[in-house]
Amino acid sequence: xxxxxxxxxxxxxxxxxxxxxxxxxxxxxxxxxxxxxxxxxxxxxxxxxxxxxxxxxxxxxxxxxxxxxxxxxxxxxxxxxxxxxxxxxxxxxxxxxxxxxxxxxxxxxxxxxxxxxxxxxxxxxxxxxx
Length: 130
Ligand SMILES: [Zn+2]
Prior knowledge:
Blueprint: H1 3-12, E1 25-27, E2 30-31, H2 47-73, H3 79-112, H4 118-129
Helix pairs in contact: 1-3, 2-3
This protein binds zinc ion (ZN).
Zinc ion (ZN) is lined by residues 16, 18-19, 21, 35, 37-38, 40.
């Protein structure tokens, strides 16, 4: 398994992409500031990217489901059901996908910057504040 595959696999399992540690979330919608095992900062610099991942993921899932329903039921798709299903999915899928999008973005960050030291990020953030 390559390092990049390992990063994204760990993220999809809701583990720290860097070390594979668990316990990254206080609850489904609240991620801790850093990994309790390796100290990788999880809070800074990844919010916008994670939101983009989340919205894109929700739209892709919704599009696939809607198109599949329309294709399978053609020529009489259940438009009445679809008009309520689409907005409901746009509300619920981002909530389900939220922790995955956060960790996938952390994995993407680590994949793009493979030589960055996780501890340096945490300590660097502390040093800048003092
Ligand atoms: Zn970790």
